[in-house]
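Please fill in the sequence for the structure shown.

STRUCTURE ENCODING:
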């Protein structure tokens, strides 16, 4: 597939997922997950990457970021993914690709849908059965949101508050904990493919407007109701989680690749 010029969507929030090559558990050791986060911090310093949430699992990553400038996200992803893979291959004397070719990006509306997506990210390892509580997984944004690390923070707390519509941090944390608690009580093992397979998620009007702005890139894509939201994608398909023994790849026609999108 030819690579189009990378353009940016100013102010839009993206949920990015990126898998290790062939879904291998190349991030199973904490030192490698921590190196990913160190390079993510470097991207924040170099390019001004605005991170709202994250989790680094054993074989894939989730990032929630805001598009703050042209090429900020592509450059950041190139730096973080490239350096993480290079260091791992050098240490292990390994050759070959570390990541799947490209990462998937989903536009998320900046309201209750954003909070729902954050919770979905935080409960990733709970769904996988690795931990009982999100706080038990160190390489995630959950603990950082609750306990600001100060100088070495990754999460853009100011932008997080504004995109969620809060002015007070304590109110934000209370709402966040309540959303986590509600999700934990209401079938936390259930996967929601709209967050990892769609082009956009939000209310019907938001998704319709996004489709209109995408123009030719959205031809053939349908607006589909999903739980209490709407999503823009080809069709609804069974979703196999990253930790399932039989895990089908996401269909290409349901993937909206970052380097083939156009300005909104």
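FILLED IN BY: designer on duty
SEQUENCE:
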């Amino acid at each position: 597939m030819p690579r189009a010029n990378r353009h940016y969507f100013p102010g839009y929030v993206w949920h990015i997922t990126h898998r290790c090559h062939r879904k291998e558990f190349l991030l199973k050791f904490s030192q490698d997950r921590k190196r990913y986060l160190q390079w993510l911090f470097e991207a924040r310093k170099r390019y001004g990457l605005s991170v709202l949430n994250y989790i680094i699992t054993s074989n894939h990553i989730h990032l929630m970021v805001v598009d703050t400038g042209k090429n900020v996200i592509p450059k950041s992803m190139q730096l973080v993914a490239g350096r993480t893979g290079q260091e791992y291959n050098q240490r292990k004397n390994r050759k070959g690709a570390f990541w799947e070719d490209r990462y998937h990006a989903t536009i998320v509306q900046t309201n209750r849908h954003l909070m729902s997506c954050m919770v979905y990210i935080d409960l990733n390892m709970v769904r996988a059965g690795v931990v009982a509580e999100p706080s038990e997984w160190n390489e995630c944004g959950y603990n950082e949101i609750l306990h600001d690390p100060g100088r070495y923070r990754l999460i853009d707390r100011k932008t997080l508050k504004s995109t969620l519509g809060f002015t007070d941090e304590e109110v934000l944390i209370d709402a966040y904990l309540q959303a986590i608690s509600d999700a934990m009580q209401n079938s936390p093992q259930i996967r929601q493919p709209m967050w990892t397979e769609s082009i956009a998620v939000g209310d019907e009007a938001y998704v319709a407007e996004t489709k209109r702005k995408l123009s030719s890139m959205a031809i053939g894509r349908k607006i589909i109701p999903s739980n209490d939201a709407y999503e823009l994608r080809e069709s609804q398909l069974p979703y196999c989680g990253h930790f399932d023994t039989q895990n089908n790849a996401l269909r290409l026609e349901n993937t909206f690749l970052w380097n083939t999108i156009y300005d909104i």
